Structures are given as structure tokens and as C-alpha cells.
Amino acid sequence: MTDPNSTAPVAPNRRRWSMNWLGILPFAAFVLMFLILPTLNIVLGAFQTSTGGFTLDNIRELNSDLIRSAYFISIKISLISALFGCAIGFGMAAGMVFGDLPKWLRGPLLTFSGVASNFAGVPLAFAFIATLGPVGVVTVFLRTQIGIDLRMLGFNLLTYYGLIIVYLFFQIPLMILIITPALDGMKKEWREAASILGATGLQYWWYVALPILFPALLGTFALLFANAFGAVATAYALAGPAFTLVPITLFSQIRGDVLGNPQLGFALAFGMILITGVANVIYIVLRTRAERWMK
Amino acid sequence: MSAKRIWAWFFILFGMVYFLLPLFGMFQFSLKMLRGRYSFEAYRVVLRDPQFQTTFGYSVVLALLTIVIGTLIVVPTAYWVRLKLPRARPFVEFVTLLPLVIPPIVIVFGYIRLYNTSSILPLTGSWIGTNILVLFGYTTLALPYMYRAVDTGLRAIDVATLTEAAQSLGASWVTILARVILPNVLVSVLSGAFLTFAIVIGEYVFAALLNLNTFGPYMVWMGGNRAYEPSALAVIAFGITWVCMGLIQLVTHFSKHTKAKR
């Protein structure tokens, strides 16, 4: 029990282990103060009355017409923009990797994707207003030179599908950047094996390539969804508070309590964390699954 | 075989039209300020606007300070975790990815509630406090990119051997970090830094909700009140993003060359 030989090496070891933790103390303090505690504060606030008591009323009040429709529109826009972002981004990346296109195309396309995926927010909205807005370059060109009036056709940039068109500007490049390594990892032998066994190109894609890529695709879809769901600046610069998306509603709520109940703001934010959290968990789980094939 | 090529060209050309049209549109629109001819009048007006100069300068300073703070927090932490706390790595990595999960607007909402004038630490009550708050907020936003870049850089070097070599020559921890580790991961730090710069320079939500007159809120104000200047601002912002991404490629390329020579 009190054998000095067995206890002696353990004690300093344990002390060194605890001393080592001190090395990340600045990081821990920073993360606690500026990430964890602020978020926790919002989460707790969602379950508190204005005097600090526990309540579920805030969560229950999310079920009002205004907030329900805000969540519905936000989720719909995020889903559609993620879907199109995935489909078009996949098409472009697959074309680049497998499509026998000139080799020099790859570098510029990937660089441009890096730029475009970071060109979100206020300037992106301006670029689209200048192009497809009521007096935008393309709108005016089509009306005066070709005789197509986009407005008469029912097109308006400052609508929800207009917003989706704008969001695709950063969704597609993000898809290209994430899916290209996965496509590069597809072995030529798989395709050869499939064609030796008599598979057509379509059969190869449907029965071999897509099942392998499926986790990567669905994972990236979840990431694009979360990406669109949390975006504020682009939509706000496009139409101000006119879009009743969840982040825009929250923005107006923080600025001036438009919901008329400060506690409701916390519940709204809590719902956002919940949704982006679930989307990201899906992404992380599926990415680890997808990486099994990429060794 | 040819069907494949047709599809490939279809998607690439579609992408080119979709991506180049808005860029062309904003550039052309920005040149139309003077009636009947193309000119750089909108740029001249914007660049001469004292509001532009103040807000843009402010954002540049914030971006540079964010990079400094981010480097000071991320490099020692990533180094220490690799050297001494490998078991904590998944946990630290998870925490650094959280800013991608929690929407920025929720984080800044938390700041406003946690550090308001009636709290223990009333950061939002003073000018300097609000600036400290926004700097750490931007560092939080940059954390996922910074940490991943630096951690990847550290993977390429033998941290333990370098540390022992430096220690046996009598170097202190600060010396090791500043003169051994940092130069070795400089390319990664710079990559993270340029990305951080691109993110911070046009950031809107944090600045607007903390009532700071940075470049982001200035752009939104211009968007609501002017016709041609916003396009000029968009071109400038796009140029900055492009330069930042170009510099990342440049430093990465440069480092590959030096490694190949060795």
C-alpha cells in the first residue's frame, strides 16, 4: 500500500500533467469570455423570465405566426440555396475534375472559388443590385436592347428567390472548394472496373460514384445550409429589415425590441443555435464517414 | 465521352456567366456616375469622402489588431497542445470550430447582454471597452481559420525536437515561440492573417450592433443613400478580397519553393 517505489513516479507525473494545462489558460480564458459565456448567457436567457426565474414561456411564444413564418422562410431559403449550391457546385467541380477540360482551367477556378466564397455580405448585395436591380446593368440592357422587361416577367431581385440567386454566389464556390478534394480521391480503377463489368457512364455514377460521395455531398449540404441560415449582412444590405428572416428579425430585435418582449429575443437566438448546431453535427459526422474512402 | 465533355462545358460556362455577370455589372455601374460617358467619378467621390477615409482606416486598424491578437492567442496554444497536451487536441479543435456553428449575430447578442453598462464588466459603456470587445469578437470569428492554418503548419515540423534543441541551447519559452516556432509556421500565420483581414474589413453585424462606425456600416449607409458609390465600394471590397486570396496563394507557393530547395 505505502510502497514508496510505486507512488513516487506517479505524483510528479500527475503534477506535471496539471501544470501543462496552465499553458492553454490564456486560450481558455479568451474562449470562455468571448465565446462560451456569451452563448451560454443567451441559451439561459431563453429559459428565464425577465426577473430571472425559470420558464418555458419564451420557447412557447416562438410558436407565434410572425416567428413561425420567419423560421419557415429562413429554413426554406437556406435549404433551396444549399440544394442549388450543391448541385451547380458539384457539376462545376465534376466537370473540372473528370470533364477533359483544359488543364489550365483548374487553378483559376479554384482561386476564384476562394475569392467568391469570401465575397459575401454588403458588397455582394451591391454587385447584384448593380446588375439585376431595377436599374441594374443587365436589367436595363435587356429592356432597351432586346425588349425583355424583367419586371414585367415578374422578376424582382428584392424577393426571396432573388435572395437565393445572390446567396448562390458564395454557396457554389464553397461547394467547389469542399467537394473537389473528394472528387480527386475517386480512383480511376473504380471507373475502369465498372466499365469492364459492362456498366454505362450513368450506371457508374448512380451505383458506384454517388454512393461513395453521398456522405460528402450530404455533409457539405448541411454546411451550406448553416452558412445561409446564419447570414445577415447580405440580406440586410439588399432590402434592409424588409426580409423577415430569423437573423434579420433578431437583428431588429437587438436594435430596438421589435417583438416587444426582450426575453423572446433570446429564444429566437437559441432556436438559431439549435438549427445551425444540428446542421453542423450532420456535417461533421458525415465528413468523418466520407473520409474513410479518401485514404 | 463527348457527352461528358458537353456536360462539363455546360456547367463551367454556366458558372462563368453567373459569376462574371455581377462582377461586370458592378464595375460597369460604378463607371456611370457622369451622364453619357464612362468615368471614375464615383471612385473619386468615394475616395475623397472623409467618412470613407475614417471608416476604412478604422477597419484596417481593427483588422491588423485582430491579426496580432489572434496570432498571440493561436500560435502558443496550438504549439502547446501539440507538444504537451496531445490528448486535449480534439477538444481544443472542437472549441475553435464553434464560431462556425454559432451564428455571429448570436455571439454579439451575448456580448451586449454580458458586457452591458449594468454588468460586472461594462465593456460597452466606454469607447475603449467597446473596441476591446469588437477586437476579441473578430478574433473569435477568425479563430477557426487561424487555428486550422497554424495547426496544419505545426504538423509539418518536428515540434518536440525543435523545442528540445532550443532548450538545450538555453532558450526560454518566449524565445522558442518567437524565434523558433513562429518563423517555422509563418506561412500558415500569414495565410490565416490575410483571410482574417478579408473577413474583418467589411464586417457588418458586430460593428452595427456595437454602434461602431467601421467600413461595413458605412457601406450599408451608402447603399441606402447613394446610387453609384455603392458599386464603387463593392469593386474596392472585391479587389481587397482578391488581393488577400492572391497573397495567400503567393506565400504558400513561395514556401513550397523554399522547401523544395532544401
From TrEMBL, chain B:
Membrane topology: Multi-pass membrane protein
GO cellular component, one term: plasma membrane
Location in or out of the cell: Cell inner membrane
A Gene Ontology biological process term: transmembrane transport
Residue intervals passing through the bilayer: 7-29, 56-79, 91-112, 124-147, 185-212, 232-252
Coiled coil: none
Phylogenetic placement of the source organism: unclassified sequences, metagenomes, ecological metagenomes
SUPFAM superfamilies hit by this protein: MetI-like
Statement: the UniProt record of this protein carries the keyword Transmembrane helix: yes
Principal localisation: membrane
Protein name, entry field: Spermidine/putrescine ABC transporter membrane protein
Ranges where the ABC transmembrane type-1 domain occurs: 56-251
PROSITE patterns according to UniProt: ABC_TM1
Keywords assigned by UniProt, alphabetized: Cell inner membrane, Cell membrane, Membrane, Transmembrane, Transmembrane helix, Transport
